[in-house]
Fold these 4 entries.
Entry 1:
Amino acid sequence: MEVSQVQQPSSNGRRRRGGWITFPFIIAMTVGMNLAGAGWSSNLIVYLIKEFNVKSIDAAQIANVVSGTFNLVPVFAAIIADSFLDCFSVVWISSVISLLGIILLAVTASIPSLKPQPCVNGVCKAPTRAQFGVLYAGICLATTGQGGRAVIATMGANQFPDKPKNQTIFFNWFFFTMYVAVLIASTVVVYVEDNVSWECGFYVCAGANVVGLVAFLVGTPFYRRPKPEGSPCTVLARVVVAAIRKRKLQISPAENNFYYGKDILAKFTTPPPSTSFGCLNRAAMRGNGDVAADGSNKKPWRLCSVREVEDFKTIIRIFPLWSTAIFLATPIAMNISLSVLQALTVDRHLGRHFQIPAGSIFVFVFLSTSLSLILFDRILSPAWKRLARKTPTPLQRVGIGHVFNIAAMVVSAMVESKRRNVAAKSDALIAPISVLWLLPQLALVGIGEAMHFPGQLELYYQEFPASLKNVSTSLAWVIIAIAFYLSTALIDLLRRVTGWLPDNINHGRLENVYWLVTVVGVLNFAYFLICSWFYKYQNVKEVGHGESNSLDIQSSL
């Protein structure tokens, strides 16, 4: 990673905005926001159980909803930044909201009347509605404030217009600092919360938020701040509305009946509408009074260009593959929250004086993912290219991720069976079994994530048209959000219809939950293979593979 020289004043004497001078301010905000967000959310399950007497499964459910919202709010923040406010405004407003939420959480930890009394002889008093209200208000504000995380990346890239190399360098630093901040928060800050005090840990998070916000605002005079250009989601909605309003219109094969845009060259550079999903072609058919004399669109909610219609069709074609990723991520979401509950019931000591915080257990997923990405990039991918004479396709990477995910669920079930048997023999809440037994399942989850998550991003970014690149990358975050919500619903369903998930997991059958999601994972993998069989790459040259069809995924699996 390298840094270009400092920008020079423009020829008219005014300082040119943007460039590397903005880098330290944006990176400071990246570190502050991620350190603050991960610092309180990583240990939320333990905080709910120990300080608010929330039952373990209920705490896992709440944490799942929070995690889902964590990954959903950045999408809404990006839409707001594109449509109404600029990136700068969304980032600093989000940071202020996050700070208010974290301060409120710190207050709940500091004032005894805002949380229930500690359990006495196994008897625990539930929180009052007022106590829950303050707690949930803090969680909602702190979670909503994390919406600016994704917008920071866009804002950083905006500082280097027409300089892809500099944008790439920035993204490398952005993701590096983001992972470092999350790693520190999940270890150091969580350790402070568990071994010093909760209020101290939360105020550390608040301090990181303040430092990031102040540093970001100091750089205000130097930022490029492009005006919002409108959300592409509005364009997609227009296609649907226009097609419905013209549903009775007879489709004509004549190219002159379709609208290609105001630019006269667009008609010669844009192919005619495809025959697939032909009902949508009505949205691009000219009607009386739809087009002005200068060729502009007078009724955008009744007429769309051919390019806009074809962009919408692209989303429809890729939707089946996108849906397979939901059921790929759901077992991962369940495994992360349930692993914390397992960690609370095993021996977490490493040596005599150090104990791994339960909220830090999924750090091993981050480590596994990071190491696997390096291994794949430096060794496995070049070896694959030498043997197969082409790089792995995105669908091949996703397919391999499916396999590792299934393996992780199988190992999770086997480890849980051993943990429960040891706990039953010892008749103790903390089973005399090391927390290191949980590492294999977490490592497999990390390896699978290193394969399928970048594969999905690559697939969506390559296959979506240029006008929808921002939407394409946000789809991966939507998947994560849906997965956490779906895992919450699935756990709640299993609690209602089975006895597998009591409050004390030593008396339940958590391994059956893992076996169930293993079966779901196998069925989903079969569904993925069917979808990949029929899917044809739209941008073959960009993908860099000789065949447009993705049948070669099966030979690699």
Entry 2:
Amino acid sequence: MTERVSTCCTKINQMWVTVIMVFLCLFCSYNVRVCPSIAITQMVIQHEESLNDTIGAGQCPDYNLVDAPPPTSSNTTLNSTTPTFAEHPNIGEGGVYDWDEAIQGIILSSFFWGYVLTHIPAGMLADRFGAKRILGISTFVSGLFTLLIPAALKMGGGASVLICFRIVTGLAQGFAYPALNVMLSGWVPAKHKSTVAAIVYAGAPLGTVAAMGTSGPLLAYFAPDRIGWEIVYYLFGSMSLLWCLVWFPLCYDEPLEHPFMDEQEAKNLSAELSAHKHKKPPQVPWRHIIRSKPVWALVAASVGHGWGFLTMVNDMPKYMKSVMRFPIGHNGLLSAVPYFGMAISSIMWAKFADFLEYNNYMSRTKIHKLGNTVATIGPAICTIVAAQSGCNRVVSVSALIVGVTCMGAALPSIKINVIDLSPNYSGFIMALANGLTGVTGMLAPYVVGLLTPNQSAEEWSRVFYTISAVLTITNSIYVMWGSAEVQFWNEPGFHLKEKIEREKAEAAEAAKESVELLQMQSEIV
């Protein structure tokens, strides 16, 4: 039986199997990461007074009364119910937990409290011991703790239990990005980097699409029973666990370890990857990495992209509900649309980047800088348009869709830039870049809360201006100092060469001191 499986699977290109599985890992991770942003809108009790006071000075009119003046009494469509989602997609408004805005903000940001802590150890462990087990265990733990959230809350756990579960989920997912970069560096040759990056990192926006696009209709259908929000955690937690069942028997750290891969194909692929890759890399060259301008330019670009992306992911559903006043069914779908565009644009940009590079129209460094510029300046302009649009739903939502779509160009640019700079230490560098990016996931909800105490269109314009400024500044840093060249401290012989040069310098210094000592003795005599 094993021989039959082996014979069958040798006909399949295992590199692409690994790529698809890593894509699905990121897809499942973002399902788990994003689903509370939608679910919490149905978990929390909507007080009658807050519903009535939502439409006030500077607020947008109700979604069903776009052309009418804002209602002044409680007799609004927010309080109406009808039997089906098709007749009235606002069905299911309400909740069971009395959490104020501050508690909700803590819940949504708590994921990142754990997320930022495990990046550095994850990068070092993945570089040293391989990525397969780390990536698998990370996904299993995050899926399990998501699946258990409804049971934990049913047993009497309140917001504190949910916060703890989200912190553990963040701790687990902090291992994902560093490990998957190490995994890709052991499988993907230079000629496929852009395409693979577009496919793999499209898992983030597509996972967001799936979580938001599916959660809205599900919550709209199930929420009248007051238990409907649970379906979100059950669905996406189970998907992560199912992925683990396929991952462990099917994927391996490198081609030569794969039992189902053709031996000659594995050797050829390993030889192609070995030019800049250590079999067992030495210690991380901390001093050189910390002093590297290309590394810090990449960190700046990652932080800028993360600020825009994570602000949209965490707070877009609230903007759609509180400002644009879309009902829950429309909220989930409209919040998801921009990320579908982001995934498509990332693949299109990867193909365009490959075209430019293979025809020698631009260097890889310039291609990455162009991609990041499109992914930052495009959204910067679009968020300004959204800020100026006020309560015009068509203009605001269209601008946000176009802006987030442009962000797709960053995926085959700055994300794969980690492997460009250092295949041997890609896990550590990704940990540094993505760990600091994760800090924005903690800060962004807090900043949004400070800027939007009344959730008005005018207040949200400040959020959009802030996003625009951060994107523009970080892109300027990347354009000045970014690079796609393999750094000298990555090379296999670098550490030995540095050691020899250090020993030579020490020997020369010792010889100089000996000569000076002899001269002093001769003068004394």
Entry 3:
Amino acid sequence: MVRRVAIIGAGVGGLASLKCCLDEGLEPICFERSEDIGGLWRYTDSTDGGRVSVYRSIITNTSKEMSCFSDFPCPEDFPSFLPHHLLLEYFRMYARHFDLLRHIRFKTTVLSVRKRPDFDTSGQWDVVTETDGIQESHVFDAVMVCIGHYQKPNLPLVSFPGIETRFKGQYLHSQEYRDAEAFRGKRVLVVGIGNTGGDLSVELSRVAAKVFLSIRTNTWVFSRVSNHGFPTDMVNNTRFNHFLDWLLPPALTKWIKFRKFNSWFNHANYGLASTKSSNFKIIINEELPFCLLSGTIVLKPNVKEFTESSALFEDGTTEENIDVVLFATGYVFSFPFLEESVRSLFDDNRSLYKRVFPPQLEKPTLAIIGLVQLTGSVMVGAEMQARWVTGIFAGWNKLPPASKMMADVLKKKPPVQRNPSKRENLKLSFISYIDEIASCAGVKPSVLRLLLTDPRLALAIFFGPCTPYQYRLVGRGKWSGAREAILTQWQRTLKPLRTRVVDDSSDGSDGWHWMCLLALPAALVAGFLLSKYSRPSWSPWAGPQL
């Protein structure tokens, strides 16, 4: 039976894993190479040491209610979208509340994780760490790798002829970016339009002489704020919308999807995206459309090559006097401490069973936490993975045989996409994936059962946002405060906004309750269909990447 568990990394995945291990009576030790918790969300001015951290101005793309730990809501006075210092403070509150810090060894680097000679029978691991130059060997019954996928900057210089040999200006990866001051008065080319590329382009446009943004794929831009002023992810990521996507024909779903994309502004007019494309990415950015409209950012196609001071693009145009090229080209995951025989078992997260377990291992005592791309908060996904994994380590839950796990992996793993612009298609539906892991852990709520026992809660779950508290209503780890947290989630969302009282006879909640009451028959039918015809392998688009 697994007792001692090594946890690598004290970011959000590591903290959740620590708490889940303690809940299951396991003995965890978390190794963190830096001096504090928070992972990439702990901002530092320095870029030395290769540690990846967020830039100074970053604000979360997912709202606090959709991103928090499932049994620890964010403080009600925190804004819905958090700057990095408030998110880090939330992590500290969580760690203090559940007494996690005493289980973390800071300034300790994991050098190697190797199978023990008797791994076939024991499933144990030899773990070598280093603290202040002193190495130490440990034996653990299981290992949870919680370093995420923001580890090694992806800098594909070979794809940009001339950048290393001819270009005389400066080039850098977004990992090195901290704030815009160093770019004041310069002509800057940003390559890549993920969330980071969009954010940095907007920020640089306020101080740079000119900003050019090079993209090579269709990109749809969403705002964090919905039509009625609520957080977009709370409005979009609902079980009702999820059910409609499952129910409607794919062609109609696609038409509705593109109508939704263009409801804010016509993306084709801005050169961003066409409704005819099946490959696309989604970013969150409120200011980018205005910057394009005002000319402070100029959109360009993919770069063909660089000269000493110019960038030549695939459409034949050239931009002269480029001072800085900023590559916002993402990251690749890297686990150099794992022995080669283990690393070779998975080339990406699709080679892992449920994106967590290497299915070929003789014993299921290694879990990769947080290496998943979702259309919602990865933080919620990491916690759910940790709950499932620690149940298996504790012995009360089981994995299927290796042959079934391999069959599941092969069934869900599409052909490898060589074009990085198609990586967006590898993202998983937030609700589909969390529900899948929750079912494995025995903590998925039943809307149909709740309709019979607690109709008010059932309606809030089905029509309201799919917040993490839903997964604390039943099963192991059930939290007595989950129901109240769900029924008060909108109050916590609005609380920070109501610093000035405005006389209004209704805040809209009465109308929402009437809508839910009228929708009860539809919910009953939907609950029946969900229970009778649910398709576990289904994974449609379920809202924007946040």
Entry 4:
Amino acid sequence: MPAKPAPLKKSPAKKAPVKAPEPARVETPAEPPAESPPVEVPAEAAPPAPTEETPVTEAAAPAAEDKASTPAADAPADAAPVEAAPVEEPPKAPTPPPPPVPTSAPVSLSVEDVSETSLTIKWRPPETIGDSGLDGYSIEYCKEGTSEWIVVNEELTSANRYCINNLTSGDRLNVHVVAINAGGRSEPTALAEPVPIREIVDRPRIRVPRDLRVPCIRKVGEQVNLVIPFNGKPKPVVSWLKDGQPLDMKKVNIRNSNSDSILFIRATDREDSGVYEMAVKVDSFEDKATITLQVVDLPGPPAGMKLVDTWGFNTALEWNPPKDNGNTEITGYTVQKADRKTGDWFIVLEHYHRLNATISNLIMGNSYSFRVFAENKVGLSQQCAVTKEVATIQKTGIVYKPPEYKEHDFSEAPKFTTSLNDRATTVGYTTRLLCSVRGCPKPKVEWLKNQMIIGNDPKYRQLSNQGVCSLEIRKPCSFDGGIYTCRAKNEQGEATVSCKLEVKQVVVPESNKEKGK
């Protein structure tokens, strides 16, 4: 037993150099640390070594061997010193990405269908999704009167529509939808009111008559009785609004039945004009329709009529549109005149669209007043605008001096517009040569054959009519062929045109001659 503690005496001296190099200090591995010099244990002290602390020392020795990270720790003590290596800075850790953010809440959650055991809802994706994307939606409902929210779908759905099945008829459910991504849950989007679970036999629908799809026009004082049919089962709840506000039930009467709604006004006035909105609702299903009512009246008088100018037998008028158009567009104006002597009014212009007019054909020596009425689809205005000034047509004589025009010189030398063409004819067949000429004064026309004037030879017939010249050669013979010329002359000059006429002889075959004999 005394020989067993011998290795413990050498163990501290051998392992001490291993603890010398620390990560934060640069030292030569051969230099032992001052804190742990080798300690020799006397031989007399060897027997007390195996105590309870001895296993701790043996356990610490292997731990010290594991911490040795450089080969210099195992080098012999008499080895040469090694130069210290430069210390390299450790690389900087990358900036961690920002934590994911939940999406915004889904939008436009509404009921698509409902039955005795199911409810179908639909919605639109969130406006803000973020970089982490969208994992899906969680649909949850809570029965009215309770606080427990039940998750419908075990797995997230990516669709924007979901049907909740296995519901109990008669329950009223609060439903909301939550968008989920890596950042967590969004704010829930809930239906505006609880949905009763029951069968909708017929969804509400308004059937607007065709004549009410355009603005309904009524005159002031007329009665309005509009019948709007609708469908829906169970019986829908009907509501009316005028320009977004509740109706004044003192002026408008509403009567509802199972199949239609009647809007009744006994006597209309201008204030009844507007957009009437009808809504029928069965639970969460609703249908709306709008009807435009336009109550029209006679327009007011035109404004600011004045006499602009008077000259000769004419006068110029101007006016402005009426301030009150009767709640409908102005379709025209009617202008009237009155002679101050008689005071009778006569229509000058009717259905006139401009804001100025010139009145003509007035009588010399008379004075006139003018007035104008505005007109719309209801009729003429009850009042009119009258000119303050009077248009007086003076009696001073008017001398008409016709304009002087310089006479145009139409003189023109003869010019052939159609020339003669070469012709070929047969002996004994009358032929005609044609050409046309113009000139001012009218040119004299002569015909020549081979540069010789034909004159009054009865064999030829010369005609000239409206510039068309013709030469008729009666039953020409072979001697009538040659160059024919038409010459036209007047005071401005002369012009000629020529052609060649060839007269052919008919050749009779010998066989025909023998038969003739």
